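Possible regression after last week's pipeline update?

I re-ran a chain I had predicted before the update to compare outputs. Posting the input and the new output here so someone can diff against the archived version. Not blocking, just want to make sure nothing changed silently.
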Amino acid sequence: MNNYKKEWNAAYNQGANNILYPQSEVVKFLNRFICKRNNNGTLTRHLNKEKTQKLCGLDFGCGIGTHAIIFNDFEIDSFGIDISEVAVSMAIKNASKKGLKNINFLVQSSKTQVLPFKDNYFDFVLAESSLDSMPFDLAKLYIAELKRVTNGIIYASLMGGQDPTMPNNEFTIETQHEMGTIQSVFTQEKICKLFGTTKEKFVYFSCIDYTDCISKKITGKRYYVVIKCSDVGV
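New output (post-update):
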């Protein structure tokens, strides 16, 4: 199955999708579901409170490492993995610039969808704008792997349909930004199919519509979901 490694390397080389600051929804997720950073500098753990050692998180499709790096602010042992060697190289450099040498960045094999981690290795997985940047069938394989390597919860951000001219399933990007890669468009039903479960099983299921204030038209849509690994049905 094509994993579009060549296309993603080209995308990161041109720098168009190098996100240098964490997405606000990711920070909200960490504070609400993983551990909260308090005003006095302490942390209040929400996930696996009985665990005595530090929490361990995986940034799946980590890109240039922005979210794996932010894990450090929450004192989380951090791992990032991406199909692009170019992105991972940038991630290592970005972490080094911040004096962080304890973040583990890996390149995912192009020959298999099996992730190089033991069963139940992580307390949580973050999949920010990654599962929708591949064919649906490939995303299903990775969901099974994320369930295997995680004993806690999975967060995912997924693109929904935008204007009426956009295909409602998946398509190849033809513009310069991420040219040649696959974009998968999601609905509530498709998200449930991806995780092999019903909407009621999700801990959190939200959708944000982006509206043009002049035309009043919806110009974008993005879903944010959180689910316990024990409730993933694939």
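Follow-up from reviewer: compared with the archived run. The first strand starts at residue 35 and ends at 37. Marking as no regression found.
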